[in-house]
Amino acid sequence: MKLVAIAYSILILIVSVIPGNRLPEIEVQWFDKLVHFLMYGILIFLWGKAWPYEHLRFYYFYLIMFGFLYGFVIEVLQYFLPVGRYFSIGDLGSNALGLITGSVILKKL
User: Fold this and answer.
1) Which of 38, 57, 75, 98 is the most exposed place for a label (fewest CB within 10 A)?
2) Does residue 88 sit in helix, strand or coil?
3) Phi, psi (rounded to 5 degrees) for 57
4) CA neighbor of 74 nearest in space, from 91, 90, 97, 61
5) Could you tell me the residue range of the domain that residue 47 belongs to?
6) What is the pTM of this model?
7) How wide is the angle at C-alpha 86 spanned by C-alphas 46 and 74, nearest 5°?
């Protein structure tokens, strides 16, 4: 499961730095935010299954913070790399909501 979580993390990074002009245009309102929500919800779920340390104090908080930091670093990369992408607070918000929702689902299972 660790390999799957790491591979998925790398996949998110790769997809996030693909030049913007190579991405398909989808004219559905908020589609981009939904994609961020789902990507990061799945990410935290995979991380939680790969590293199941629920006995640690603040385990889910740390998972969420690590996921948020990962998304933040990717947003900063998009800002600085010449790939036609940009830093978005909305993307960070969608990531955070996905991380929180994914952690709640993880905790319930």
Assistant:
1) 57
2) coil
3) -65, 135
4) 91
5) 2-13+32-108
6) 0.91
7) 30
The 8 Å CB, 24+ separation contacts for 13-21 are 13/74, 16/74, 16/77, 16/78, 16/85, 17/74, 17/77, 17/78, 17/81, 17/83, 17/85, 18/83, 19/83, 19/84, 19/85, 20/83, 20/84, 20/85, 21/84
Dump pLDDT digits (tens) for 95-107: 999 999 999 999 9
58 domain-assigned: yes
* pLDDT tens string 4-18: 999 999 999 999 998
DSSP codes joined into one string, 18-87? S-GGGSPP--STTHHHHHHHHHHHHHHHHHHHHS--TTSTTHHHHHHHHHHHHHHHHHHHHHHSSSS---
How far CA 69 is from CA of 16, 87, 95, in Å, comes to 15, 14, 10
Q: 69 in a domain, yes or no?
A: yes
